């Protein structure tokens, strides 16, 4: 067979060329292609490929009309496609020799021939498109060859002569029609839109320095038309022809690549998205395409096709928009997208598409949401599998995916705490250590992972790697790599965490340090200038630090009183920013957070650090107003630094609990204040608030004296027994933890440990606690840090709160965790005396009130008793004995209605507070408490309703219970509820009209098309351009259909229409006597309507636009 192939190739040089040779070569090549066998003798194959390029370029007019020639060229093009995509055993250099043209002259002759062809469907255009498409595929797989002179010449010619031309824009204009006629799709049009876009896009991926145009010019030329095409056709995927799919696919790919093609002063994506609305409209259109279910079926197909390429391009486009634009909030507003992306990732037979889908999920989901979806294990297993196989492949690829591509995909996910923990549990950090020598990006991933305590320990125990890091930090010539390695070593260094904190009275060089992501450099420069004008000494890194950036960062924090954290999505994802913020937090610097990204909500580690702090929202207010609020916040910080007088205790000192605050070694005297609060000055008011750990309240009352503070409390109707919304600084959130601690006016309490326990379980240690500015050492042995937190909360209630208590047992330390709520005890404060019974565990202060009155009847009388359950405290009143209290997800609430039983309190709280769900609510009526146990209820038709006694966990299980227990309940009429969670047993219509309108209609349905029509009639926000109707899980957009008004009735004809006249005839034919020639108005697409004239006939019909 090999000799046969070689003899046939040799015969190509014999003149005249035998047609029989062409036929045999074509058959042999087709056979090898179908067998995925490329094992021809390479020298003979090289001769054949070069012969083909020569024939294509110089004398195509002599053979192009001969079918045998065309068959050979077509067969060889398909063979080359298979060679590129399915033959990893052939070296890329060999493929380049086979596939590249010999000279630039050959390319020039080919383009010259195309330019002179008058027939837009000439077969020469078809063959050239196939060969140039193969070049594009090859460059996609092997981008290192993109900078060869022949490729630069080819793509610059394409850009100048085909893409940046009026002809290209004309072809795009043809695609801007609602119903694109098939006749417009010619071979020349597809050469322009598919082949030229594909090859140019592949070239631009390498970001060539000698590119004659900048990407902005390409986007400026085609961008507006591309946006229109997506906006028009993203509603009608079901009617797309193969050619339209091809055009949209490769246009999307080119626009996507142009948007990420950037230089020092270039930001092409801003050219495309001149306004936020344009950005949102494109995102919504692309989401509609991704959500189209028929494309999902194609993704499971193992063969590559245009639908797959389209989905991949869109997902990459999503990544670019998420990483460069403030669009994450808009993606997150689409509640269906995460589930669809997860389905794509898990069902695709092509790993590169799964990789893109997982990467987008990693961008749009918060850390908490990633945990809730519980697919962290899937992501971890997926990436680890691909990385291991790609790393151990001789060419460092896996199924055409280079290892560097895989590493870029996991780089974003590496910032997720759940992924970090999964890597730690699987001891997989060694794989990234192994890859770091060849791929520097692995060091950045290791840095992100090194914020995890378990991974830190694994890295420290790897002595060779630690030695290599230390050596590289000193000797590496790559400055960026040195910075990354400094960051890893910083995280692994133990000394900076336990280093004694400088005395706060030491003089600082700077008043403020600004910690920010360089994406927000412009606005941070404005803030810096305003602070300097106001007289502050400010440290900020504008030019990016050189040398050991971590030491420079630490020195800046040490020399600053206050750190302003500029919050954004990029800030949370930055390893540098995380290290800065965490060090400032550890060194107990005053932290003032500001929000710079629109719609961003802090999550993950950033939420933990700033959670209890008020922040200034620079997006909600004009810059000048936001700066006023920032100055006010900084002013509070200055007041909070007021010095207190420290007096050493003498041995015979009499300690009076109400006059002093005691630590293990020092006595801090409270300031002497006027007896009447109304006589307090502004400074005295601030002193008292800070002295009592009311730092957040001090921010609210920064400009108030005692009288103004009273008036402010009265104006805002502050009730110390109810959870209050935060006031000021651009936020308005209900603080659920305020109910536990009325002195607290900050944000939600962190629910994660700062450090992990690492104690010998058989060896008790001593406790110590830090509560705000106070330190305590309870004389109690401990086994873990959490017990110390509980002890301090109970023993020092005047100072230690759920928010400010940091307990240490030996060297293991924690902040308060919600688990400790399960082990709280009653504390009775009766006439100034406190009684703690460690046997009386509690869930609410109301239960403790009853116990205090019962256990200490001689001292605890109703008018002089206060009871605390942990930090949840209440004074006794007659109303308390029969009032409600609820505990929901660790929060305690006190609704106003009086109660008869705890079950009634459960119902009241579930309807009053958003975090009180049927599975997590405990209600108390006085001292009697009960948890909510939901049961099934059934509603089957208009006449049958019943409440069962069967406990349930989901409404879906109740559907089965209702239908199996009651004959009146059938598949078509059953609505079942598990507590407040209800679901229809029968499919119902859901209308999705635009990005934010999702309405479920109270009706059963038979098809998605039926729901589309019902949505258009019943929901005001729905129109033919934005509607998508779902019957259960079956969804469909609006398709042009016939609607007729016949007299007073409206009817639909079961056809897809092209004209109003067609609808008029269809309705007359389908509905007979109801729709007659004299009373029928037919509408196609609900816009243009025609009334049939009984005398003139349809051809002379009166046409008018529907109202």
Largest sheet data: 5 strands, parallel
Number of strands: 36
Question: Radius of gyration, rounded?
Answer: 36 Å
What value does the average pLDDT take? 76
- Largest beta sheet: what is the strand line-up? 4-3-5-6-7
Domain module tally: 10
The fraction of residues assigned to DSSP E strands is 15-25%
If helices are DSSP runs of H or I spanning 4 or more residues, what is the number of helices?
44
- The parts where pLDDT drops under 50 for at least 5 residues are 642-670, 711-763, 818-822, 1093-1107
Structural class: alpha+beta
Helix content: 40-55%
- Give the N-to-C terminal Cα separation: 74 Å
Shape field: globular
Oligomeric form: single chain
Q: Can you offer a commentary on this structure?
A:
The chain has 1107 residues and is of the alpha+beta class. It has ten domains: 1-99; 101-391, no CATH class; 392-492, no CATH class; 510-635, Rossmann fold (3-Layer(aba) Sandwich); 766-821, no CATH class; 823-882; 883-929, no CATH class; 935-984, no CATH class; and more. It has 44 helices and 36 strands. The protein has a five-stranded parallel β-sheet, with helices on both faces. Strands 11, 12, 13, 14 and 15 form a five-stranded antiparallel β-sheet that branches. It starts with a helix and ends with a strand. Residues 642-670, 711-763, 818-822 and 1093-1107 have low confidence and may be disordered.
């Amino acid at each position: 067979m090999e000799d046969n192939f070689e003899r046939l190739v040799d015969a190509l040089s014999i003149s005249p060329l035998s047609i029989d040779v062409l036929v045999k070569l074509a058959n042999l090549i087709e056979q090898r292609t179908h067998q995925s066998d490329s094992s021809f003798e390479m020298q003979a194959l090289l001769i054949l490929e070069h012969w083909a390029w020569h024939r294509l370029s110089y004398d195509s007019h002599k053979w192009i009309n001969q079918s045998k020639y065309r068959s050979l060229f077509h067969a060889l093009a398909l063979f080359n496609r298979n060679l590129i995509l399915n033959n990893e055993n052939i070296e890329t250099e060999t493929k380049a020799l086979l596939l590249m043209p010999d000279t630039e002259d050959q390319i020039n002759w080919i383009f010259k021939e195309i330019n002179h062809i008058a027939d837009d469907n000439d077969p020469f255009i078809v063959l050239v498109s196939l060969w140039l498409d193969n070049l594009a595929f090859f460059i996609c797989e092997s981008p290192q060859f993109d900078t060869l002179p022949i490729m630069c010449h080819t793509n610059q010619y394409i850009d100048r002569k085909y893409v940046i031309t009026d002809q290209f824009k004309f072809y795009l204009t043809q695609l801007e029609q609602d119903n694109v006629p098939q006749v417009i799709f010619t071979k020349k049009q597809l050469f322009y839109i598919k082949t030229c876009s594909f090859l140019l896009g592949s070239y631009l991926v390498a970001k060539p320095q000698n590119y004659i145009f900048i990407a902005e010019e390409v986007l400026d030329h085609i961008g507006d038309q591309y946006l229109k095409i997506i906006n028009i056709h993203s509603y009608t995927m079901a009617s797309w022809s193969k050619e339209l799919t091809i055009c949209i696919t490769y246009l999307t790919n080119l626009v996507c690549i142009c948007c990420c093609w950037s230089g020092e002063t270039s930001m092409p994506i801003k050219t495309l998205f001149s306004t936020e609305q344009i950005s949102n409209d494109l995102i919504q259109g692309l989401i509609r395409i991704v959500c189209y279910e028929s494309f999902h079926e194609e993704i499971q197909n193992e063969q590559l096709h245009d639908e797959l390429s389209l989905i991949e391009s869109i997902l990459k486009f999503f990544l670019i928009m998420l990483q460069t634009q403030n669009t994450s909030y808009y993606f997150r507003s689409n509640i269906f997208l995460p589930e669809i992306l997860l389905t794509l990732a898990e069902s695709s037979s092509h790993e590169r598409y799964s990789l893109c889908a997982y990467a987008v999920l990693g961008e749009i989901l918060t850390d908490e949401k990633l945990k809730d979806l519980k697919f962290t294990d899937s992501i971890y297993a997926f990436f680890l599998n691909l990385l291991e196989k790609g790393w151990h492949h001789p060419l460092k690829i896996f199924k055409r995916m280079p290892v560097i591509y895989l590493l870029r995909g996991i780089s974003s996910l590496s910032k997720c705490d759940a992924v970090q923990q999964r890597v730690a549990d699987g001891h997989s950090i060694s794989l990234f250590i192994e890859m770091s020598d060849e791929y520097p990006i692995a060091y950045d991933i290791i840095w992100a992972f090194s914020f995890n305590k378990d991974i830190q320990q694994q890295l420290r125990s790897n002595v060779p790697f630690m030695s290599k890091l230390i050596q590289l930090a000193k000797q590496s010539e790559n400055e960026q790599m040195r910075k990354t390695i400094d960051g890893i070593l910083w995280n692994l260094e133990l000394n900076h965490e336990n280093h004694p904190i400088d005395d706060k009275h030491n003089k600082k060089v700077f008043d403020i340090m600004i910690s920010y992501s360089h994406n927000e450099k412009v606005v941070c420069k404005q803030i810096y200038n305003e602070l300097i004008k106001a007289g502050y000494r400010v440290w900020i890194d504008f030019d990016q630090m050189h040398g050991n950036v971590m030491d420079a960062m630490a020195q800046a924090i040490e020399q600053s009183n206050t750190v302003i954290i500029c919050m954004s999505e990029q800030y949370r994802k930055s390893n540098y920013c995380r290290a800065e913020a965490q060090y400032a937090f550890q060194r107990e610097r005053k932290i003032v957070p500001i929000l710079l990204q629109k719609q961003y909500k802090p999550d993950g580690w950033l939420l933990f650090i700033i959670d209890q702090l008020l922040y200034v929202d620079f997006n909600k207010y004009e810059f000048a107003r936001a700066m006023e609020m920032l100055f006010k916040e900084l002013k509070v910080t200055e007041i909070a630094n007021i010095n207190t007088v420290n007096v050493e205790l003498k041995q015979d000192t009499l300690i009076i609990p109400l006059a002093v605050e005691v630590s293990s070694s020092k006595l801090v005297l409270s300031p002497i204040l006027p007896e009447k609060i109304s006589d307090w000055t502004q400074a005295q008011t601030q002193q008292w608030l800070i002295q009592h750990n009311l730092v957040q309240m001090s921010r609210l009352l920064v400009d108030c004296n005692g009288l103004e503070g009273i008036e402010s409390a009265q104006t805002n109707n502050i009730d110390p027994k109810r959870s209050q919304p935060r006031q000021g600084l651009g936020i308005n959130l209900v603080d659920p933890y305020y109910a536990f601690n009325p002195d607290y006016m900050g944000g939600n309490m962190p629910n994660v440990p700062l450090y992990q326990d690492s104690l010998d379980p058989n060896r008790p240690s001593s406790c110590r606690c830090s509560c705000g500015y106070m330190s305590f050492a309870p004389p109690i042995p401990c086994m873990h840090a959490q017990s110390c937190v509980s002890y301090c909360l109970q023993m020092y209630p005047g100072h230690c709160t759920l928010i400010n208590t940091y307990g240490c047992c030996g060297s293991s330390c924690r902040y308060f965790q919600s688990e400790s709520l399960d082990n709280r005890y009653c504390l009775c404060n009766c006439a100034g005396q406190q009684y703690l019974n460690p046997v009386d565990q509690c869930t609410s202060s109301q239960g403790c009130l009853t116990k205090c009155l019962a256990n200490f009847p001689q001292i605890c009388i109703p008018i002089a008793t206060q009871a605390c359950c942990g930090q949840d405290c209440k004074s006794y009143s007659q109303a308390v004995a029969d009032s409600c209290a609820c505990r929901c997800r660790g929060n305690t609430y006190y609704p106003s209605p009086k109660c008869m039983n705890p079950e009634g309190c459960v119902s009241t709280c579930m309807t009053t507070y958003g975090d009180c769900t049927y599975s997590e609510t405990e209600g108390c009526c006085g001292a009697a408490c009960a948890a909510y146990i939901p049961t099934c209820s059934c509603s089957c038709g208009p006449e049958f309703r019943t409440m069962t006694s069967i406990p349930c966990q989901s409404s879906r299980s109740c559907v089965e219970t209702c239908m199996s227990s009651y004959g009146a309940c059938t598949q078509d009429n059953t609505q079942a509820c598990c507590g407040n969670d209800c679901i229809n047993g029968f499919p119902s219509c859901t209308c999705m009209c635009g990005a934010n309108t999702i309405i479920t209609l109270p009706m059963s349905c038979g098809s998605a098309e039926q729901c589309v029509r019902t949505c258009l009639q019943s929901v005001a926000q729905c129109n033919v351009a934005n509607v998508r109707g779902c019957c259960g899980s079956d969804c469909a957009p609006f398709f042009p259909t016939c609607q007729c008004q016949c007299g007073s009735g409206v009817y639909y004809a079961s056809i897809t229409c092209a004209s109003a006249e067609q609808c008029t005839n269809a309705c007359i034919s389908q509905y007979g006597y109801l729709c007659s020639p004299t009373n029928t108005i037919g509408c196609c697409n609900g816009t243009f309507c025609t009334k049939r004239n009984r005398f003139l006939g349809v051809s002379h019909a009166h046409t008018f636009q529907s109202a």
